[in-house]
Amino acid sequence: MDEKYNFQLTKIILCAADFALISVIFVIIQKSDFIQLSKENLYFLSLIFGFSWVATGLFTGIYDIGKYSLIRTLSINLFSTLLFHVILIYLTLYSMIAHSIPLKSLLTVYLFISLAMMGSRIVYKLVWKYFEFSGFDLRRVVIVGTTRSGKALHDFFTLQGGSRYIFKGFFDNYPNPDIVNRKLVRGTVDDLNAYCIRENIDEIYFALPLIHKDLIKRLGKFADDNCIYLRIAPDFSEVVHNSHNVFLYDSIPVLTTRKEPLGLFVNAALKRAFDIVFSLSVIIFIFPIIVPIIALAIVWDSEGPVVFKQLRPGKKNKLFECYKFRTMHINGSTEKMAVKGDPRITRVGAFLRKTSLDELPQFANVLLGDMSVVGPRPNLLSQLEEYSKSLQKYKVRHFISPGITGYAQVNGFRGEIKEKESMEKRVEYDVAYMENWSLLLDLKIIFQTVRKIIKGDKHAY
Membrane-crossing residues (predicted)? Predict the structure, then answer.
């Protein structure tokens, strides 16, 4: 509970510090007359900048810096926060006062904010490291149980928490030499009490299965009597693996069968907000220029509609109409996958497929909520019926909305599927994307997609 409290307190302090830093920056701007705005508008702008920065930072995890290295904090999280703060400021302020602020001035404000945030993080990490290495919060710990859970704790204490914890040894009546080196075992459970008193132990970690109720009670009483903290990290090695997540519902730990970052409301809301902003930007700024040209080319090249609609399985296998620019002559075999040199493909269609411009109408699907900008590609209904029977994890990819581009596509798995192994690899990448989702991963996939479009993709036909 103390760790959780300290973590929350740290977040509150950092939020307040960031808000104060931004306020100070705007005070300096006001004193120097750098931006020609009234005092009231500058005050209003500083409040909007401050509150939106804190809100964006909470979404992107910039205040969780205790668990990250300094480099990651200053690069990945800070960059994500800056990016979404710019989008938020643009959407909320442009119609009010931001249009009257020169772009150069806004860029300079963001430069000042970036430098201030980087500086504050460096100071924070230096203070953090000082307390870690000064021994201010140094804890001597022992582990009861040579289990996989106990081994994981040992690795944490010696590798990641080495500056805060001094690991003193394992205690187990039946030590498992396949998991823990015997040299690390200090004795049996009966030897624990005397050892803790002699070595001035601060924390005991119980890593045996929870069936040992009487032992937990005895250890609890001993710990209370000797001002030692008892922590329980039970061994779930038979049922829990690295792919599992643990959620706390009030005080109830709940295990999931796999990592589910998009199962959290905050992450799902952030991804949906990004989809809306990104798809709207494409529709507003790109559609008016490119769509008329493509439509005229399609009509000139062959008879038929400009946009092709086809039912595809989406999130939770719910069917939706997927939009694409028509790239084939009218035919009756729409459930047949395109192959290299396919005679159904028109001349304009070949160009659209090669450049992925045929996917542009799917940004309307994104705006409607049927698709996402990034996600598993929506396969044909015939593929769903075929591969859901033979591939164990095929249906898992439908836990989330399909995407215009995806992790499998940027890793070379796109186009014609000639053998089952090809689909297996696509499913493998799709599941990996689901279990490791982050906003940064989405941005990386989008960047790689654009790069592939520019360079050309041999699998696009």
Answer: 12-30, 42-63, 75-97, 103-124, 276-300
